[in-house]
Specification:
Elements (H helix, E strand, L loop, with lengths): L1 H24 L3 H26 L14
Helix pairs in contact: 1-2
């Protein structure tokens, strides 16, 4: 069961982190700046992670997959 929870958390962390930064981006100005700057860094990484998980390209591609 621990392995299943760990696998789920590994897949969920990019989305949870992006949602939290989005939440910060709609808050009052001090936190808004933190959220917007964080999203500027995280969204390109999230796009690369999604591309690696779905299409098997980039540094986040599964090394054991046959997607070549």
């Amino acid at each position: 069961m621990f392995a299943k929870v760990r696998s789920w958390l590994r897949l969920a962390w990019p989305f949870v982190g992006s949602l939290y930064l989005g939440y910060l981006a709609v808050q009052a100005p001090p936190m808004r700046y933190v959220g917007v700057i964080g999203l500027c860094f995280v969204l390109p990484l999230l796009a690369g992670w999604i591309a690696g998980q779905i299409w098997g390209v980039g540094p986040w591609a599964d090394a054991g997959s046959d997607a070549e």
